[in-house]
Design goal:
CATH class of the largest domain: Mainly Alpha
Helix content: 40-55%
CATH topology of the largest domain: ABC transporter involved in vitamin B12 uptake, BtuC
Strand order of the largest sheet: 8-9-10-5-11-12
Distance between the termini: 48 Å
Largest sheet: 6 strands, mixed
Bound molecules: adenosine-5'-diphosphate, magnesium ion
Length: about 600
């Protein structure tokens, strides 16, 4: 959280609110803001960060509410047991729905969320034991140590206590190993190449968001002391999504800002508009729609970033994030992998072929790469070099042939399993998370070297492991000469330096084999020299490298062995000196071997 003084102020204001002579109306309004914010916080994670759109969160709120309503009135258990049971049911349903629907891509997931929201709504309305459309009344209040939270003021304390805890936990989660994986969900292949199981994290945030909805439902049921289907319908599901979008996902507080803005504006419009225009027609919906369009037009990323900028103008620029602290020099060092002895065969590519429809991008390519060797892969644009990288690293499936890494056949395995075996890569088209700091981007590369999960992260029990990851990332950044950029957003660096960040990220994986796709593109002469020195040092440490690069000076000086490709086929192979005088290569490139 960058704006700490503001945070203290907000919490203080929340704490004294019930003692101020504010009308009961405002306490009720605050209760609703708290309840809705819980659901919106889940959506912020699910939709804002993870990119999975759900219209159906109100259905989970309903699960939490109806569970406790039925259990406390019909069975007569304590509301706290109602909470546990409700969360268990929400977890089960969300896990089941998530496992089925999260496989869907594009518009199908949002459509599915519409479907289950409607289905659960009609279920609540048609089940006799849930009171059909009348619902369940006479729900008892929550009690804490014999003290009843029946009055609105007291529920206010419980609602906001739970909301503040949820904000804290979610903030922690986003600032962790699991959080970096969640923030990388939209990137697809990149994160999988560093061992992130995207499907797992999709289910995690889906269940997390559903559970927050369930808690909100439980609080609602015991605040209203009655439930009926209407607050769990599709209209509310859409409204939650609206709130999440308006708040923005730059900070967990976006959830509260979005919720408060919409609830208060809607309410005030309902009061003010009829008096202004002198008609009782429901014009507030129209005015509300126009307002929303304006917000989305002028604050694309939601209201939170706008508020943050305003605050910084008032209070001066925020302190740099914690990552700027000397990156945990007292932190433990991560265990390192043992590299194979120099000269051992690390990678065996045999008769590999890749068809894209009628186009043969890679045609019967075979080669071997040994430990402690830098091998170059060169050829003009479109020769099939990047495709070979994708085939080796498991990003694309090959049409024929085989790939063995450390003696194990890896073709057909998912990218994240290949990464686990010790293969790391960079991408020709830079794939960093632009809003995340350089250091955090590099830490993502070490995803497989720590284990801390979601619960540990939310409760901040993962700090030792995080410090070790931060130390490792700082070490790799230092090695590639980017220590000074650690705290900058990755997207603010020139493209050439972003490529070097990708190398640091790949090194964080502690690889046996490193695949670098045009690492020197966009670098200045001195920067290229420095990069060559780093790669040479890696080779001397026993790492193996496969390099695609267009700068012939760079390639010829650095590599031990070269494969030249053209139109997907092998043109020549050998040591750099032979390649430079190879007639076939010279003929293909009309003698212009300076730069392909
Ligand atoms: P290089 O990296 O050597 O410049 P690529 O491996 O990127 O070449 O591309 C080789 C050929 O395969 C090109 O003709 C390219 O257009 C084609 N190609 C690459 N990826 C795809 C894809 N996903 N779908 C269809 N064609 C592709
Ligand atoms: Mg390429």
């Amino acid at each position: 959280m960058r704006v700490r003084p503001l945070l203290v102020l907000v919490v203080l204001a929340l704490a004294i609110l019930p003692w101020l002579p504010v009308s009961a109306f405002w306490i009720t309004q605050m209760n609703y803001i708290g309840l809705y914010s819980l659901v919106v916080l889940g959506l912020l994670l699910l939709t804002g960060v993870g990119g999975l759109t759900s219209f159906g969160q109100s259905a989970f709120v309903g699960l939490g509410a109806y569970s406790t309503a039925w259990l406390t009135t019909v069975v007569g258990v304590s509301p706290w047991l109602g909470l546990v049971a409700g969360l268990l049911l929400t977890w089960l349903v969300a896990y089941g729905l998530g496992a089925i629907t999260l496989r869907l891509s594009g518009h199908y997931l949002p459509l599915c969320t519409l479907a289950w929201c409607l289905a659960l709504f009609y279920l609540y309305g048609n089940l006799d034991f849930l009171g059909r459309y009348d619902g369940i009344a006479s729900i008892p209040p929550v009690t804490v140590g014999g003290w009843s939270l029946g009055a609105g003021n007291r529920m206010y304390v419980l609602i906001w206590l739970i909301l503040l805890l949820a904000l804290w936990g979610t903030h922690n989660l986003l600032d962790s190993r699991a959080g970096r994986a969640i923030r990388a969900l939209r990137s697809g292949a990149m994160a999988e190449s560093f061992g992130v199981d995207l499907r797992h994290y999709k289910v995690v945030i889906f269940v997390y968001a559903a559970l927050l909805g369930g808690v909100s439902g439980w609080l609602y049921a015991h605040m209203q002391r009655a439930v009926s289907p209407s607050p769990f319908g599709l209209g509310y599901g859409i409204e939650y999504l609206f709130m999440a979008v308006v708040g923005g996902s730059g900070s967990v507080w976006g959830a509260v800002v979005g919720t408060a803005t919409i609830l208060i504006v809607k309410d005030q419009l309902q009061n003010v508009l009829p008096a202004l225009i002198g008609t009782s027609a429901n014009l507030e919906l129209l005015a509300f729609g126009v307002l929303m369009i304006l917000v989305l037009q002028f604050a694309r990323d939601g209201l939170w970033p706008v508020l943050e900028r305003g605050w910084e103008r008032l209070a001066g620029p925020a302190r740099p994030r914690r990552a700027a602290a000397p990156a945990g020099l007292d932190a433990a060092e991560l265990p390192r992998r043992e590299l194979p002895p120099v000269g051992d065969v690390v990678l065996q590519v045999q008769g590999v072929r890749k068809d894209f429809g009628g186009l043969v991008a890679v045609n019967d390519i075979s080669f071997e790469l040994r430990a402690g060797e830098i091998m170059g892969l060169i050829g003009p644009n479109g020769a099939g070099k990047s495709t070979i990288f994708n085939l080796i690293s498991g990003v694309q499936a090959l049409t024929a042939g085989s790939v063995r890494f450390m003696g194990v056949r890896i073709d057909g395995r998912p990218a994240r399993e290949i990464a686990r075996l010790g293969l790391a890569r960079s991408f020709q088209h830079v794939q960093l998370l632009p809003d995340m700091s350089v250091l955090e981007n590099v830490m993502l590369g070490a995803h497989l070297r720590e284990r801390a999960g979601v619960v540990a992260a939310a409760l901040r029990l993962d700090r030792a492991g995080e410090a070790a990851l931060r130390r490792e990332a700082a070490r790799q950044l230092e090695r590639v000469g980017l220590a000074d950029a650690a705290d900058q957003p990755a997207g603010s660096l020139p493209l050439g330096r972003q490529r070097v960040v990708e190398i640091a990220r790949a090194l964080c994986c502690d690889p046996i084999l490193l695949l670098l796709d045009e690492p020197a593109a966009g670098l200045r002469y001195q920067e290229k020299q420095a990069l060559a020195a780093v790669l040479d040092q890696l080779r001397r440490e026993g790492m193996s490298l496969l390099l695609v690069e267009h700068d012939m000076d760079f390639v010829m000086k650095l590599t031990d062995h070269l494969l030249v490709m053209d139109f997907g086929t092998r043109l020549a192979e050998g040591v750099p000196a032979d390649i430079q005088s190879n007639p076939a290569v010279l003929e293909a490139y009309l003698g212009g071997l300076d730069e392909f």
